[in-house]
Write a structure and sequence with these properties.
Layout lengths: L3 H20 L16 H8 L4 H15 L19 H12 L9 H4 L1 H4 L2 H13 L14 H11 L1 H4 L19 H12 L8 H7 L4 H12 L20
Helix pairs in contact: 2-4, 2-7, 3-7, 4-7, 8-12, 10-12
């Protein structure tokens, strides 16, 4: 049973995060900058041996939004993190902390004062990667899957793989099993130049996508299944927070 006190301890930080989201200035957008320049905490965290116990403790901060299971929300408010490649999580955390990716909601939670330094990034990323994935992620309407499949095969396979499995060593995320609404929002931001740490190759690749194309391809992606041994059971609760 997850205790109320654990959640209550996070609520003040969440209030600060919402305040920052409402008042933070929008930084200049340039998708070509900050994509994967490396250095700093990203490079350091990649070399560190993960500590599982600390990863569990650090992830409790993340659970306020992403849930203890790491399954996020089907409405796309928060993505599923469970099962994501460790390298991808390290990169995204380091980018948010270095202000290479704009995420005012998450930023206060990602700071060293909240979760610790590079070692904590390594620890929590490794822990998240081991969590079983949601067996019932949010999916699209299923109305134009033939178009979505064609667009995916023509544009996305080289980086994200045939089933959306991504490529860990190249920091290409696993997108299979991700919530449709979250995919839709991120794709739109990348296409429209609003996500500064987006891969510039992807920005160029999808610039010609219409809203119909975008909805179709992400509907198709949302239906790609992770390997069975990576997926949890319906109703699973994370025993690390009993």
């Amino acid at each position: 049973m997850k205790t109320i006190t654990k959640i209550a301890a996070i609520v003040p930080a969440l209030a600060v995060a919402v305040s920052l989201m409402m008042t933070s200035p929008v930084l200049a957008q340039d998708p070509a900058k900050g994509w994967n320049q490396g250095g700093g905490e990203q490079d350091e965290a990649l070399t560190l041996k993960p500590n599982r116990e600390n990863g569990i403790e650090v992830y409790e901060v993340c659970a306020a939004c992403h849930l203890y299971e790491g399954w996020g929300q089907p409405d796309g408010t928060f993505p599923q993190l469970a099962g994501q490649h460790k390298n991808v999580i390290i990169k995204q955390l380091a980018d948010i902390r270095a202000l290479n990716r704009d995420n005012p909601t998450m930023y206060p939670f990602a700071l060293p004062a909240s979760i610790g330094g590079a070692q904590s990034i390594a620890d929590v990323a490794d822990y998240i990667a081991t969590l079983p994935m949601n067996p019932e992620p949010g999916r699209g309407p299923g109305t134009d899957l033939a178009l979505g499949e064609k667009l995916y095969k023509d544009n996305c396979v080289r980086c994200h793989g045939a089933q959306g499995e991504g490529i860990a060593e190249k920091y290409y995320p696993r997108i299979q099993g991700q919530h449709y609404n979250y995919l839709l929002r991120q794709f739109e931001w990348i296409r429209d130049g609003k996500r500064r740490n987006a891969n510039p190759d992807m920005v160029k690749q999808i610039q010609g996508f219409s809203d119909k194309d975008m909805a179709a391809v992400l509907d198709f992606v949302s239906r790609q299944q992770p390997p069975a041994d990576m997926v949890g059971t319906v109703g699973w609760e994370n025993p690390d927070y009993d």
